[in-house]
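Entry:
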Amino acid sequence: MDAAAQNRVKYPQDHRQPAALFGGIHHLQLHGPPTLEFSTPEAEMDAMADLVEAGKIKSIGVSNFNADRIRRAYDALSKRGLPLILNQMRYNLIHREIETDGTLAAAKELGITIVAYTPLGSGILTSKYHKNPELIQHKNAYYRGTLKRELEQTRLLISVMEEIAANHNATLAQVALNWVIHFNGDCVVTIPGATKVRQAEESAAAMNFVLSADELVRLDGASRNLK
């Protein structure tokens, strides 16, 4: 039995379920150490395990851990009889580094969920900057340069997304979210940001359809070589 299967058997679905229920709202409370490497993964996981055993926290996750640090953290927690629940990483149709640097492969092997942040590529994948490039001028100088570069690099991708969105009567944001949560099976979930109610509703509606295998492949091809 591989490590991922052992993780599911030893820690079945309970560690992925809501930790508590307050007023009808489910929430999963996760705790992770800082991403800056002030200490070793082993020391960090031992400290987090102490908190679990003391009843202070219930679950442990990490953020921006590469493949090596994931494996070390997983091994350290396994010695304490605890699972590593997730690794929070930047992942979207523009930024796919975790697919090639071993991070995603390690997560799949060990049964660790990837929680994708910035799934909309900081707004680029909604096409708002393509439609209104003047919005870029409101950003700081460094960010403006990044947005201008990504705007030019993603024109073909946006065109493909628009065609797919029309097929599903969906928005580009919903297509981008749908790709993130379906392209890698059940290994990846996402946490889209929202500053307005309509944005939260739009994100939730991304679950109302599923991209076809052909659509997933088309988006893969249109985005795989973006730098």
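The domain at 117-227 is CATH 3.20.20.100 (TIM Barrel).
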